[in-house]
Design a protein that fits this description.
Oligomer: single chain
Largest sheet: 6 strands, parallel
Strand order of the largest sheet: 2-1-3-4-5-6
Distance between the termini: 31 Å
CATH superfamily: Alpha/Beta hydrolase fold, catalytic domain
Helix content: 40-55%
CATH topology: Rossmann fold
Number of strands: 6
Number of domains: 1
CATH architecture: 3-Layer(aba) Sandwich
Low-confidence stretches: 7-14
Strand content: 5-15%
Structural class: alpha/beta
Mean pLDDT: 92
Length: about 240
């Protein structure tokens, strides 16, 4: 009986490895960040035999519509034609995926996992975008992430792709959390990370700034890629 169980486990692990090798994962960092912020994710995914594409893009230089093209088109070219395509995004990166998919189909798209995405905008933009220096720090794209019904994220509509979302519930910025006034990660209200059509949603006690480096978040990304859902278990 033990021998049979061991064989089954071995076969499942082999199938998981084969599936990973046939998959390409594109990582998209957030606003005013760079590809280095996604390196821990990159390393872990690569160790699980995924092909990982982790390019930086000039997040403060252009509006969302142009950034989506600049960030995603060259990344897709790095994936092989026969590979399934997956995305892991942080913050603004998730909005870029939504923007890109609103204009271009990705035929072999499999899973998208968004970390702290402002899918319904952020109150931080509502309150601070008119302050001196805000646009300089956050750029043109940062000005497009308000909660207004006509903001870019609110106009992009429901998800028509396989989507899992991880939201943070801890903050290292008490001032911004006071502005948001609700359960948040220091930048985005948990409720505003949600998107109609999503497949699964998970809240974890992590901050917006560092969630993509958190062991439990990374473990949940891997679990979603393998099973199409989160399990909520903490990684040690």
């Amino acid at each position: 009986m033990k021998s049979c169980k061991s064989v089954i486990i071995t076969l499942l692990l082999m199938m998981s490895s084969i599936s990973a090798q046939a998959s390409c994962v594109i990582l998209l960092h957030g606003l005013a960040r760079n590809s280095g912020s996604m390196e821990k994710l990159q390393e872990k995914l690569a160790s699980e035999h995924y092909q990982v594409v982790n390019f930086g893009y000039p997040s403060r230089d252009f509006q969302i519509e142009k950034l989506a093209e600049l960030a995603i088109k060259p990344a897709l070219k790095e994936c092989q034609p026969e590979q399934a395509v997956n995305f892991v995004t942080h913050s603004l990166g998730g909005i870029l995926v939504r923007q890109y998919l609103s204009q271009h189909p990705i035929e072999n798209l499999r899973h998208v996992v968004m970390l702290g995405p402002p899918n319904k905008g952020s109150e931080v933009v509502d309150k601070l975008s008119d302050m001196p220096g805000y646009k300089f720090i956050n750029g043109k794209a940062g000005m497009q992430l308000s909660t207004d019904i006509n903001s870019v994220p609110n106009k992009l509509g429901r998800a028509n792709f396989d989507l899992g979302i991880i939201a943070g519930t801890s903050s290292i910025n008490l001032i911004l959390s006071w502005i948001i006034r609700g359960e948040d990660d220091g930048k985005v209200l948990v409720e505003r990370t949600r998107l109609e059509g999503m497949n699964d949603h998970l809240s974890l006690p992590v901050t917006h700034t560092f969630m993509m480096r958190n062991k439990t978040v990374i473990a949940q990304v891997l679990h979603y890629f393998k099973f199409g859902k989160f399990n909520g278990e903490k990684a040690y």
